[in-house]
């Protein structure tokens, strides 16, 4: 245990060292850290002894870092930044309040638990009210101020405040070895009117001159997936769905990509902004999360 603690650096020594490098002299550094020049000099000596390296070239009117000193300057700044971030986080008063959060219907079963579990671990006193709905209705709700934060799928608008947290290809999905993709008119399983994936699919088929019929309509994407698994239809779905028992249908016209976005209510408070940050981080850090989010 003693060896473990002896390997740690004294952050006060590192902070003084960085201050000297930035101030250019021991005297100016001493003023900034509130110590005497002799005390600052003693701190540098202790740090050099701990590291076993000379950190400064002493010159008549200034001090210049050695090569080892230059290396420590970059590392020391990073070390102090992490330390200051940790201290600021735990010194801040606990965040409280209530966030009205909207997310696509199907994500309530798949993506939301991971997001909310992470948020609750760091913000246990924030109450989150969740509304599951179609993406277009969620966007309307946050614009009207009925929700504080929404997660939705679509395309990033140029004239509205939204942040893209994930992008993925939209592809045609059918049952592996199934017959639905060869039928004409092509049977489709789609979300209800107003869904961007539905519009993209119909536009692509119309542009390619492929006859189709809407064989199955569902408010939830899991309904589309069920229809595809029963080989009743094909469907426009995220590329991540294309694993067994499904396959991507390359013979149908391309559908492009879609975005997963977050949007905050105008004037949203710190709790809503904190949750928005956690949602964005979840897509980067939680494996497979994006494949669990549908329209």
Automatic annotation (TrEMBL):
Q: Where is the HTH lysR-type domain?
A: 9-66
Give the molecular function GO annotations: DNA binding; DNA-binding transcription factor activity
UniProt cross-references to InterPro entries, sorted A to Z: LTTR (IPR050176), LysR_HTH_N (IPR000847), LysR_subst-bd (IPR005119), WH-like_DNA-bd_sf (IPR036388), WH_DNA-bd_sf (IPR036390)
Which key words tag this protein in UniProt?
Answer: DNA-binding, Transcription, Transcription regulation
Q: Which domain of life is it from?
A: Bacteria
User: Which family would the database say this protein is a member of?
Assistant: Belongs to the LysR transcriptional regulatory family.
Entry protein name = DNA-binding transcriptional LysR family regulator
Query: What organism, scientifically named, is this protein from?
Result: Methylorubrum thiocyanatum
């Amino acid at each position: 245990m003693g060896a473990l603690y002896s390997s740690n650096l004294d952050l006060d020594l590192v902070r003084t060292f960085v201050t000297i490098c930035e101030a250019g002299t021991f005297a100016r550094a001493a003023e900034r850290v509130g110590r005497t020049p002799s005390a600052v000099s003693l701190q540098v000596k202790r740090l050099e002894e701990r590291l076993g390296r000379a950190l400064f070239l002493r010159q008549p009117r200034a001090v210049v870092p050695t090569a080892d000193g230059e290396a420590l300057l970059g590392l020391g700044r990073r070390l102090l930044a992490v330390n200051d971030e940790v201290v600021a986080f735990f010194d801040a008063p606990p965040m409280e309040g209530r966030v009205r959060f909207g997310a696509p219907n199907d994500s309530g079963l798949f993506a939301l638990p991971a997001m909310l579990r992470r948020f609750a671990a760091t913000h246990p006193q924030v109450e989150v009210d969740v509304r599951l709905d179609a993406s277009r209705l969620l966007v309307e709700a946050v614009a009207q101020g009925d929700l504080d934060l929404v997660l939705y799928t679509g395309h990033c608008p140029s004239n509205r405040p939204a942040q893209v947290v994930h992008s993925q290809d939209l592809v045609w999905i059918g049952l592996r070895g199934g017959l639905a993709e060869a039928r004409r008119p092509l049977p489709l399983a789609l979300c209800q009117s107003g869904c961007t994936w539905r519009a993209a699919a119909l536009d692509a088929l119309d542009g390619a001159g492929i006859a189709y019929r809407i064989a199955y309509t569902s408010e939830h994407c899991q309904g589309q997936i069920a229809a595809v698994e029963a080989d009743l239809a094909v469907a426009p779905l995220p590329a991540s769905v294309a694993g067994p028992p499904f396959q991507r249908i390359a013979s149908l016209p391309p559908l492009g990509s879609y975005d997963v976005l977050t949007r905050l209510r105008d004037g949203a408070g710190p709790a809503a902004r904190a949750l928005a940050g956690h949602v964005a981080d979840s897509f980067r850090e939680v494996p497979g999360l994006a494949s669990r989010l549908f329209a």
